[in-house]
What we know:
The structure holds two protein chains of two kinds.
Chain A: H1 2-8, H2 16-31, H3 33-40, H4 44-66, H5 77-92, H6 98-120, H7 125-144, E1 155-156, H8 172-195, H9 197-207, H10 209-214, H11 219-245, E2 247-248, H12 255-268, H13 274-293, H14 297-311, H15 315-327
Antiparallel strand pairs in A: 1-2
Helix pairs in contact in A: 4-8, 4-11, 4-12, 4-13, 5-6, 5-7, 5-11, 6-11, 8-9, 8-11, 9-11, 12-13, 13-14
Chain B: H1 2-33, H2 40-58, H3 61-82, H4 92-114, E1 130-132, E2 138-140, H5 141-163, H6 165-175, H7 177-182, H8 187-209, H9 219-234, H10 239-264, H11 270-280, H12 284-295
Antiparallel strand pairs in B: 1-2
Helix pairs in contact in B: 1-5, 1-6, 1-8, 1-9, 1-10, 2-3, 2-4, 2-8, 2-9, 3-8, 5-6, 9-10, 9-12, 10-11
Keywords (chain B): Amino-acid transport, Cell membrane, Membrane, Transmembrane, Transmembrane helix, Transport
Transmembrane segments (chain B): 12-31, 38-57, 63-84, 96-121, 141-161, 190-213, 225-249, 283-301
Organism (chain B): Methylobacterium variabile
Amino acid sequence: MLAARIAAEPPRRRAALPGAALAGLVLAALACLPLAAEAAGLPFLVVTATRMMIFGLAALSLDLILGYGAMVSFGHAAFIGLGAYAVGILDAHGVRDLAIQAPVAAGVCALFALVTGAISLRTRGVYFIMITLAFGQMAYFFMVSLAAYGGDDGLPLSGRSTLFGMRLVEGDPALFYLVLAVLAVALLALRRVVASRFGRVLRGSRDNAVRMQAIGFSPLPYRLTAYVIAGAIAGLAGVLLANQAEFVSPAYMSWQRSGELIVMVVLGGMGTLVGPVAGAAALIALEEVLAHYSDHWRLGLGLMLVAVVLLSRGGLAGLAARLAGRRA
Amino acid sequence: MLNLFLIQALNGVQLGILLFLVAAGLTLIFGVMDLINLAHGALYMIGAYLAATLTAATGSFLLGLVLALPATLAFGLALEFLVVRHLYGRDHLDQVLATFGLILILNEGVRIVWGAAPMSVPVPDALSGSVRLVGTLHYPLYRVAIIAAGLATGLGLHLLVNHTRLGMRLRAGASNGPMVAALGVDIRRLFLVVFGLGAMLAGFAGAMVAPILSVDPGMGDSVLILTFVVIVIGGVGSVRGAFVAGLLVGLADQLGRTFGPILLRSVMDASAASQTGRTLAPMLIYILMAMVLFFRPSGLFPARGSR
């Protein structure tokens, strides 16, 4: 069986190991951050770093479909919003434990991804971009008009979630460690996923779908599975975001957020998993810095985006490749 | 009930016509240049702002509208020359990022130049009355004028696309761009014309709604998404598809908002029906889109036969 042999071919690990060591180093450094911030008298750093990691988690999940599957989803923020609303709505009904909230959020997002993915993945290219955008807006308007749960104004939480009945994430440092742990687990799990047979079929379909079909793989189930996994992980990011802000709002799922997630993934480096997390951190840091200087910081971000695309030969992928080449 | 239906149907047609004006240019840009232009909604916004400013400066809405059209065209051509031109043939992802950046720049630029507060444009005196439809039913004259102007533009566009040499090139470009270039058509000039035409149509739509909607920095974004829905339903590259889908989306949206709750009342109690109806109505057009795509993945009137 040719198909089985190709799928069983061991993954190349050449570039993987230094990346893993670096990621481990960064995670270890991050683990010390709350203590350092406390000592330096800059407690807001913990909050900012938590936001960075939450969006890093969301960008990581988008990378699975965008970087490894070449599916340009412009509605990924919808999953963050749905995850956040799962927390908000359960909270409004007195269910405050993460042990229930997180699986419900992931389940709701997986279901939404399954239904919308099954329709969206019938199309390719420009159509796929516009359809995911439209589904994202559909979820957005649903929440805006859901007057029973705050509608346009959003929904404040009664407090942070409990974990197995204990108030473990009351303080910002505790939440920071929870987010760090979730991010680390997701990063490791997705590394396994993309290196597995499933991941290789996904990448094969990205590079040449016709050839994959010729050797006996139908890309659709693989793409749909990846879409569902990515949706569920983004939903978890939403659970964490709701807890961090203690507030849930339709603004979490606006299409500009989806655009920013794509920017995070592409600037960080598509198909690298660690890159999008770094991209998320960089974009949020940039927002914080630019917003400090001017109310019109979006202008700066826009100019930067246009300049990066126009000035780099072969687009951002080319720029990333050249930077990677210089580093090696 | 019949009166309400007529009013809402007319509102739906009016919304549909506006969506068609924005979508017609964008669907050609997608179809001919294979360019995903997120900044198209921003051109609609620019058209509205220019019309508002020029109306205030000249004291006449008609003069403001007539001057706003070449101004938006010039803006669109400048945008094509500076940025968009370099995106042809690029990866879709690059186009998404660059035009997303353009939206941020233009929205923020408008906020800097005109401020964040919404601007309002008075309805011109000559069109401020209302017309009698049937019996005691009246409909604002200005909205009738929008429908008429949109239909006239649509007819002009139909003649342009189907009965002129330029239109022939447009259709050829939408069905097979490289072949058109190979046959000796100056494809760069064709692209410039298409983008300018699209910008002017979007600007026209923005200028026309300025008196009935508030002109604010985010106005382009909501229209952009609706336009995408229209293009996806109609089929990328098809002006005819954009017209049919525009009316379909406009009618579904307006009638759904009013009659959704009324229809639901027959299966559930009144308060639940109005709540469910209000929640479902904004989703209706997306459900419509999903249904169309489920049966016809490349829209109702796909321009490219072999895909």
